[in-house]
DNA sequence: CGTGAGCGA
């Protein structure tokens, strides 16, 4: 099913941005942040953290399988496949928490765009999540709203 | 519709 390839989020950057050599032999960096408008929404990927967001999982992929696959690239502190409380089935994505950021990067580079249960999975840094310790306050929305 | 975009009880 090529639908999985079409439904790829930001993970397809690897296929188009096949950089490696002959990138920019003149400018190692880009010293032009405030050019004119904001052509860089920076919404491609969240900040590097030990939390990983894995998408493209098969419906039959469970937390154990996810932890097993990601444990090969580093020590997985916590892994969870998001499932519905009422139905009980997987939502098709999950989260993997590594011990360090380097291991998280290894997990992304090692499992992003790979196959799992016959489906192409995509791994990237997860977004920050509000801790469940704070009780309800005003209708203050989360900062992670796009 | 367990037929596929996405961020978690």
TrEMBL record:
Keywords: RNA-binding. Residues 28-56, 127-146 are annotated as: Disordered. SUPFAM superfamilies: RNA-binding domain, RBD. PROSITE patterns: RRM (PS50102). It comes from Clitoria ternatea. This is RRM domain-containing protein. GO terms for biological process: mitochondrial mRNA modification. Pfam families: RRM_1.
